[in-house]
Amino acid sequence: MKSEEFIDIIGDIEEEYLIKAHEERKIKKVIPMKKVFALIAAVLLIAATSTVVIAEVFNIKFDDSQNVQLYDYKTGEKIEHTRYNILYAAEKIEISEFGEEIKENHKKLEEAEELHHDCKIGEECIEHGPLSYSKDFSVLSEAVAYIGSGRITLPEMNFRTTDISVSQTLNFISLYYYCESKEIDFTVHARIEMEAEKRWTDGVPKMSIVSIGEGNEYYEEYRTNANGIEYVVVYKEPKDGYFNAAYDRNLRVISTSVAAYIAKNGVLYSYNDTIRELYNEDSTEVDEGSMSNICKDEKEVVEKYLKLWADSF
Amino acid sequence: MEDSKIIELYFERSEQAIPETEKKYGAYCKTVAKNILGNEEDAEECLNDAYLAVWNSIPPAVPEKLSLFLGKIIRNLSLNRYRKNKTQKHGGNETAVVFEEIDEVVSGNDDVEKSYERREVLAAMNEFLETLTEEKRSIFICRYWYFDSIEDIAKRFGKKESGIYSSLERTRKKLRKYLTERSYEI
Lengths: 313, 186
What we know:
A: alpha+beta; 2 domains; 5-stranded antiparallel beta sheet; 4-stranded antiparallel beta sheet; B: mainly alpha; Rna Polymerase Sigma Factor, Chain: A; Arc Repressor Mutant, subunit A
């Protein structure tokens, strides 16, 4: 059938659908979701800190091990990291001594985007491979690769512990500013978390679809670890072996998307230290620059990796 | 003016019917024509043809929803004009992109052995649309029925253009799969 003929057929679809679409066409939703989320986050922050000026909520310190720690500005108490307050902390760091490094990262992201501009997931991206700035930057380049292909993913920081390394934080901040400059929605993962939270509260079926806008649908699967703790796994395309992140009941991230994006042909595309360790146990083929050709069975690898994390709670 | 009153004017053969139609639905029809044709002049001509077609259709036709009745007429007329323009190689760039997108769903061949009844494909198409969320369905219709630009759709649905591209791409893939599974290898 020719496309013109098919377009003619579309012209005769049920009027009921046309009426609904027509109504949508009359409504102009001009508020980008990003702004809505930013607004909600700001309101929540204000509510949580009452009279405290937002700009003075946190103090950021780097300890001797080069870890980032947030402290309450007023009480001096340690604050457990969340995605929101890390984002906020990012603004402070940007104007600090690390400003130049962030700018440099930004430049590298631009280069990565150019390289991966026409990539499709699991195909050309793999040929290009993660850019070899450093192992931390493979995280960023992966994110940009997806951005370039019209898909977005973000480097998941491991917020399971209270300490985040300086380089991780800088990467995170760099990507945040990069996304902002490209008008890319950085709240995707935050939305998953919010959605997951709601679902924990409401009670949900074993498997459900989480629609987080932007044309993305994620699939949740609820599981229990070896210690009886429940957690949720968020998949992007279950049948292809992609999975996005996993959260425990308190929404702490217990796995990372960057560590677990598996390409369709079974080649591991990105990695971090944790998954590197995992592979070291299984293979002697690991080298610094590439993890290619190590994954023989993506599903098995993902599952093993996920279970290790989940059972550590 | 209410649709029913406008339709009454057509039945009375009152010349006021057309200005009233234009007043209420002129902008809407012109947008559809312009989306498809990509230029003001052709859109205007199609609009005039559409009013004439409506005048000739009512009576006997009694449209339940005048906007959709007009929309279908203007869409068909504009697509015909687009095809004519295409042979003369001008206009309608956005429409060419829409056709390219639809090429992903269809084979592009006129295979006699696999020529299905149009109404069967239409029925399958309607069933498929039913499986989509309301938002995805509306995005699909805005693009492939109204020929709205990605930019316009993104604004209307409060999303980024990349999100709309992504949504449409997924829907096209699902549609192709849906039809193929039902042996409509169109």
